[in-house]
Amino acid sequence: MNEFDLQAWERELNAWQRRLDRQPPGELRSLLHTLGRQVGVLRALYDDHETLDGDVAQDRLRHGFAELRAIYERVAGGDSVTTPA
């Protein structure tokens, strides 16, 4: 994973945070918080020049954001959004 990939995930996270800032606490906010921690850990590791297994990390994030999107569409009746490929 490189800086460009990491920035894409940070933008995705920020977009979801803005989208959900008025949602009551619950499943959506909990999953968003978990994804935020994952992105934060990846940023810290990257900033410390640690080697990241980009495929595994991105697969986890991709799956997490897909789950978030599915819950959002089910619970909030949200519009379809995209996740970085």
Protein described:
By secondary structure, the chain is mainly α. Helices cover 72% and strands 0% of the residues. It has 3 helices and no strands. It has helices at 3-20, 27-47, 54-75. α1 (3-20) runs antiparallel to α2 (27-47) and α2 (27-47) runs antiparallel to α3 (54-75). The longest helix is centred in the C-terminal third of the chain and has 22 residues, at 54-75. The radius of gyration is 13 Å and the shape is elongated. The model has no long low-confidence stretch (mean pLDDT 85).
Overall average residue pLDDT:
85
Total helices: the number is: 3
Determine the fraction of residues in helical runs and give it as a percent range. Answer: over 70%
Number of strands: 0
Could you tell me the strand content as a percent range?
A: under 5%
Largest sheet: none
User: Which regions are unreliable across 5 or more consecutive residues at pLDDT < 50?
Assistant: none
Radius of gyration, in Å, reads: 13 Å
Q: Which H/E pattern describes the elements?
A: HHH
Classify the secondary structure makeup into a structural class.
mainly alpha
The CA-CA distance between the termini, in Å, is 12 Å
Shape category: elongated
